[in-house]
Amino acid sequence: MIPSVLIYANCQGEELQKTAQFMRCMTGRLDFKWIPYHLVTDRDWSRQYGREFMADVVTVWEQVETGGMSANRAELHQRIPKNIPIVTFPPFSASCLWPFAGNDPRIAADPDRYPWPDSIAAALAGTDMPDAELFAKYMQVTTERMPDLDRRLRLDIARWKASDAIADVLLAEWVEATFRSVNLFYTSGHITAPAVRYLMNQLLSRTGILPPALTRAAIDEVDGLLRQHTGQNFESVPIHPLVAERLKLSFYDPNATYRWHAHEWTFEQYILHYIRWTDYLR
Questions:
Q1: How far apart are CA 147 and CA 121, in angstroms?
Q2: Are 124 and 138 in contact (CB under 8 A)?
Q3: pLDDT, tens digit (0-9, with 9 covering 90-100), for 182-194
Q4: Measuring CA to CA, which of 215, 220, 221, 264 is 20 to 30 A from 242?
Q5: Distance in angstroms (rounded) separating the CA atoms of residues 62 and 197
Q6: The pTM is what?
Q7: Which domains are assigned to the chain?
């Protein structure tokens, strides 16, 4: 039986698992399993993540949550033998980059079409205007209502530090120092390859079951594997140009296109599709 690392995390854990599964230096040495804490149900604990699933686990990478112990996390901890080491790490998040994330009643009826809400775009839904005028209206309203982004950033930093305070792996300082020069986020919770690489290497360094030589080889391999990887880019929410300007995002390209499933859209195209709730599968 090959020993396993169990990753208990949101969708960022899937990126860690996929990266590890392509690492040749881990072949025959370690397997990697993922429990998506945002999707797991009571039934899953008895059917999918029972005693057999846990039998080969030799260490756990656990993504922390502030706000206390959830029922799912408590269920996980009941199943981890006391002698198994746990390495905790924070989630990546950034709300300051998308300041108009908010309520859109259309999502309740159609949650998969555009699951990352934009409250201003939602308010313009149904507006009968040509595309150019509609986009100009969006830009006018968002410019008028743009919040204090420095304050939003301070709130994000405070959240990052709060997560660091209960974790073994620390992210806050690196994210704060990096996010302006390197794109780390496709959405407020979906991350790019540089973020996956940094987190994976920190976790490998902290995993005591690996001998030093294997740890070094694994880190080198991660760097190579993720050099051309695009991360969780299947839904990329464009950043508002005024947000990029005010937060001084040096990586920002105003002419960039963003992947939305099978499409490559500019910021303007994405906003117009979102306002009109266009079926992107057509």
A1: 16
A2: yes
A3: 999 999 999 999 9
A4: 264
A5: 17
A6: 0.93
A7: 4-94+151-225 (3.40.50.12080)
